[in-house]
Design brief:
single chain; 47 residues; mainly alpha
Length: 47
Amino acid sequence: MTLYKIKDKNCADCNQSLTFEEFCQINPSISQKKAIEFWTDPMILIY
């Protein structure tokens, strides 16, 4: 499973960060709790 923190999946270098709400909408298969863990962990840069 791939999670995306940026809007353009094909441009990992583009600085187009998602809001947390957008992140949850793009990744509906993960729970809110898990989403928060991914979102707040600076070590996980997800593309």
